[in-house]
Amino acid sequence: MSATSAASPLSASPPRRTLPQHSATAESLEGRRRALDAGPMPADTQAPGRSAPPPGYRSVFRVREFRTVFAAHLLSVFGVVVAEISLSVLVYRTTGSPLMSALTFALGFLPYVLGGTLLAGIADRHPARRVLVACDLVCALCAAAMVAPGTPVAVLLVLRCAMAFVAPLFQGTRNASLSDILGTGDAFVLGRSLLRMVAQSAQLIGFGLGGLLLTVLAPRAAIALTAAGFLGSALLLRLGTRSRPARSSARTSPLAGLRAVLGRRRLRALMLLFWLPPVFLVVPEALLAPYADGIGVGTAALGLMMCAMPVGTIAGELWAGSALTARTRSRIVIPLASAGLLPLLLFAVRPGLPVVLAALLLAGLAHAYTLGLDQWYVDAVPDELRGRAMTLLSTGLMTLQGVGMALAGLAAEFRPVHEVVTGAGVLGTGVVLLLLAELRSAVRQEERLRDETALAVK
């Protein structure tokens, strides 16, 4: 597919960007439909005579503002990981209750849906830097309050809820601000990928480092480091990023905000493509402990299985971001998304450790399609809705993964674990195929409307 004869099927929104537009011939309906059938082309194609940015993640780090955002992200992730493990230990030592200790982890997820829904509009109505700094300061104050000796357990849990309540607003605003710092093309996709990989890596090393930290520090002292991490993040964002105006001054209710984003057919299909596959992908992770017990392997093998999918996910993103062009990343979205859950079908034969590791690793590697999907999504979101759309995206991802884990546990009460995982692979693949068909139909509908509008103008 040539760069001059095909447009991305996900760039059908009105020309609001400053990127080069294709010729009138290339914009014909038939040409666009051929492009949709062949696979999408990224919207960040460079104009003739204009030098393309250096490929790979290195080019993103050449942007000073992004380096600041990345450093602040590291401090935020450090703060969250240390807070979770330290608070869990502190609550357990105070109450002696495993249930209360586990609840501190659950409270990191439960307020997401409420905070993301109620606060999403703030991401567009206020300057991004102000919102990000304010969220960091709220988290720092909550962590500092946890450090106070004698703080009741109920207050500790409320403070944890407050930190989780503002988390989706922070994530959505930061992701939307990346389009201001890096543009909406390939650099945005790579920047998002880097921030996502840092969060994924926390699953592998964060809790281990947190455990080591607690061997030399008391839980409250470790939580004090959390407060310092959030303060450092706020300082970096305040001094190292530019002040930009708000995207929109319109005040709308949370319900109206949801309608503004989810009422757009193409955007809704893309949002669901981000939200729903992880619901099925988390099923094996949620059930690995009983599965390992069922096949008679120990905790060391369980640890390997828990690491397999995150390792695959990180490796897949690194490969897609560093070895593939933007156009290729866009082309692999449909095949990898369609096949991404098929490795779970290997659980049908109740395999041993080597096959389980291979299945989980493959499922993680297939997640490389997310980079191309990121580009499709940012192309579909209007400027004035970007903060809200990114906040809702983060909210749905976190909330629905929790739902997926709960449903997996419920299903495993009635059916063997290997059947539940296999069923998740089958059902999830069907859901993804339906969503891809809906996306194709939505794009074709937008193309028809654009052509009809163009003909009416002529």
- Estimate percent helicity: over 70%
Helix and strand composition category: mainly alpha
Order of helices and strands: HHHHHHHHHHHHHHHHHHHH
Describe the largest sheet: none
State the total count of DSSP E strands. Answer: 0
Q: Looking at the structure, what is the overall shape?
A: globular
Number of helices: 20
**Which percent range describes the beta-strand content?**
under 5%
User: In terms of per-residue confidence, which ranges show pLDDT below 50 for 5 or more consecutive residues?
Assistant: 1-54
Q: How large is the radius of gyration? A: 23 Å
pLDDT averaged over residues: 82
State the distance separating the first and last CA atoms: 29 Å
Task: Kindly summarize this structure in a few lines.
With 458 residues, this protein is mainly alpha-helical.
